[in-house]
Amino acid sequence: MSNFAVEHVKRVRSVVQNRMAREPADSGGGITQSWIRCLNDYQLDPDSHDDPEVVGRAELQQRQDSLADLRSVAEVEMANLYQQLAGSGYAIMLTDRDGVLLNFFGDPSFTHAASKTGLMQGAIWSERVQGTNGMGTCLVERRPISVHQEEHYLSRNIGLSCAAAPIFNHSGELVAVLDASGESRLAQQHTLALVSASVQMIENRVFLHQFRNEYIVRFHSRPEFVGTLSEGAIAVTVTGRVVAATRRALLLLGFHSPAEIEGRDITDLFNISFSGLVDCSVKKAFHPVPIFEIRNGARFFAVSYAPAPVLREARQPAQAAAPAAGAATALDLLQFGDPPMLHNVQIAKRVVERNVAVMLLGETGTGKEMFAQALHRSGSRADKPFVAINCASIPEALIESELFGYTSGAFTGARKDGQCGKILQANGGTLFLDEIGDMPVALQTRLLRVLEEREVLPLGGDAPVKLDIRLISATHCDLQARIALKQFREDLFYRLHGVTITLPPLRARTDRQQLIRHLAMQESDGDGNVVIDGPLLAALDQHQWPGNIRQLRHLLRTMIALRETDLLTIADLPPEFGAAAAAATVATVATAATAPEVDLNPLENAERHALIQELTRHSWNISTLARQLKISRNTLYRKVQRLNIINPDKAMLH
Ligand SMILES: Nc1ncnc2c1ncn2[C@@H]1O[C@H](COP(=O)(O)OP(=O)(O)OP(=O)(O)O)[C@@H](O)[C@H]1O
């Protein structure tokens, strides 16, 4: 036995024998109790050199199969975690509830040493077999725990540092453990936080997958946190009865066990009917709506997502409109596991070959045009034209000729040989009408006629041309509100809304980190050498992204172009990013007309509200508004600062 091992064994025995004597240098408590269990209950020899216990191949397979759903979600997160810890010699592992190691994701520098210790698939890492260790002790303690080097019970494990966190299912049962182990001598707090965040992500995603056939209500006390790791999620039947809730949901609502919430009606929890919440969510394009919790009156912001019927049908063997193999790729590349995006892609795949008008909704930069292009490229029209027209950017007087074209001499100034309109340019292919909400009403009437008759008559022409187009339109404005104001034709609205797909804002996407890596890869021309380190990834992940994916892409492009080495870190962020991040958070709150971040009295709040409205009306031009209000620019600036008003555009990094 080496001196190290002799010392270790002595220490274990002495600590256990004098229970209350010196505590070992453990970081989170629980280590002494674990040593006591190992020596007294399991009667383990701290210097045991028995071979690690490993289950047979058939048993491993059966254990893996029984956690198939969880493992498929966990594998993505394990890969993420591994990348976050890359280079620090860690392996990422998943065990089942008995401590059997199901998945192993190893750093090459560590894999060999790891297998000698027994860190390999099939090995049993319960406390009873391996003594005090991250995975086994976590299973007993049912909480995140780190076990650092000499805190291990068996002397053969004292080279290891482990950080492990338990994974619970929605019924509160501990079903697995996620662990990062390595031979690092560094403290484990940071690793433990990363492992715990990954577990939270796994639990949330398993929940969303498991209850994909129910409505999901996602909520938080702050609107910008809906869709993030810290949100609560409740699965609800179509009649508004709670089927299950995440751990975070229980915590946010002050329940202690799933049984306290399951079976309740949503109206027992919040001051809104379920159908009311569903309607509001759709109307507000899935922006969180303010609601109050019944028991304590706490305010939350919530969104309700409808179940994904397509996913249900996708499991049927013969699919009517299965997209071609290559077709799936363009759409599939738009998402990396975010449930609403996955749902969107599934819907899109279903209509690829069907001539159904598609309406894309979503904030600016969420990828509406990209989605339209992917849809086009995925079908049999892929080699035909994709013609995009932005109805907001063409002068009103030109839209008609742009869209419908004209014949020679149709009007003064017309080109001699006439012009083929965009609609006809798209013939055989796809026409993408962006910002359709900005189309003048007269033209809407003409467009409607074209869509109904499926033929176009260019200006000045006498023979209509037969039309065969796939129509995709997009808008970020509330078309229902425009209909109410008679600014949008209701019949056209229904023509365009064959299928409506709502693209989530980037801040609500749960696959942000994968998307960030994907964009970084694209922006470095597929050069896999560019790596984003953990802290930078976390900073980008937590940013509010008012400009959505467009803003993210531009930021990465800049950072990659200016990089000094291939490892991108926080230091590569442009200086304005920090300020912008803070501003964006406040701006989101401000523009949502929710409470400002500073303490204001009701009068000041009213002044703030009025000022935001005026500033928006004047496109945030301080000089113009100051003139209008007959006060100096300085006075206006001071007001803006005192009332904590932030121009949302200033938070964007275009
Ligand atoms: N899923 C995605 N994967 C990779 N890049 C994306 C994705 N979605 C959008 N982008 C990128 O984000 C940027 C903005 O996308 P796009 O123009 O499609 O957004 P949009 O919603 O149509 O914006 P707007 O409403 O302002 O017209 C583009 O650079 C696009 O490449």
Q: CATH superfamily name of the largest domain?
A: P-loop containing nucleotide triphosphate hydrolases
From the helix content, strand content and strand pairing, which structural class follows?
alpha/beta
Work out the oligomeric state of the chains in this entry: single chain
According to CATH, what is the class of the largest domain?
Alpha Beta
The total number of structural domains is: 5
Describe the secondary-structure layout.
Elements: H1 3-17, H2 31-41, H3 57-66, H4 68-84, E1 90-96, E2 101-106, H5 108-117, H6 127-130, H7 134-141, E3 145-148, E4 161-168, E5 174-182, H8 189-210, E6 215-220, E7 232-236, E8 242-245, H9 247-253, H10 266-269, H11 274-283, E9 289-292, E10 299-305, H12 309-314, H13 325-332, H14 339-351, E11 358-361, H15 368-378, E12 386-390, H16 396-404, E13 405-406, E14 419-420, H17 422-425, E15 430-434, H18 441-453, E16 455-456, E17 465-466, E18 470-475, H19 479-484, H20 490-496, E19 499-502, H21 512-523, E20 531-532, H22 534-542, H23 548-562, E21 567-568, H24 576-591, H25 602-617, H26 622-629, H27 633-642
Parallel strand pairs: 11-18, 11-19, 12-15, 15-18, 20-21
Antiparallel strand pairs: 1-2, 1-5, 3-4, 4-5, 6-7, 6-10, 7-8, 9-10, 13-14, 16-17
Helix pairs in contact: 1-2, 4-8, 13-14, 13-15, 21-23, 26-27
The protein binds adenosine-5'-triphosphate.
Adenosine-5'-triphosphate (ATP) binds next to helix 15 and helix 23.
